[in-house]
Amino acid sequence: MKRVIKRCSNCIDIGCHKGKVLDKIISLAPEGRHWAFEPLPDLYAALCSKYTRRNITILPYALSNAAGSSVFKHVKNAPGYSGFRRRTYHIPFPQLEDIMVSKEKLDTLIPPDIKIDFIKMDVEGAESEVFAGAAETILRNKPVIIFEHGIGAAPHYGTNPDEVFNHITNCNMQISTLHDWLHGNPPLNQAEFSRQFFKDLNYYFIAHV
Q: Which of 91, 131, 141, 146 pairs with 14 at a CA distance of 20 to 30 A?
């Protein structure tokens, strides 16, 4: 983030949770415009109270590939695992609660005249849906994107790494592991991205030009 986010960078935090990453974004880009998305009502309310500056927009939507509403699996004792569908929970007794959330496409919410420089995405398996609803924004801006894509969540959405790889490459971007990108190593090809996923070698990746 220190390498790519400048003082005036405009950034998006998808799956903001309690704002840990957003805090870092604001510290690096105090003069940028930032959007944060958090569908869990209690976390959304806390974010609205915490971030009151005019250049920060907090929205209560679960991003997807279409607008509407959906049941959302709220994991009450581990909210970071919450998402549209049940997934593998690495806690002994997950306490699940079904809530209704509003869905939106990122492409309909970000003004097309705003240059987006950085996106962080943590959506517990719904990566393909979010990328599909953000394709115009990504293609237009080519932002650096930090995203999770792991075998513990994505298969519950019927998503495979080939879909995610195609979403990124169709926007004329590449995918690397964070380690490879930081050390200047070549990006992943489709086969290696799939191997990283299915062997559970990495679940954090970076999309970049």
A: 91
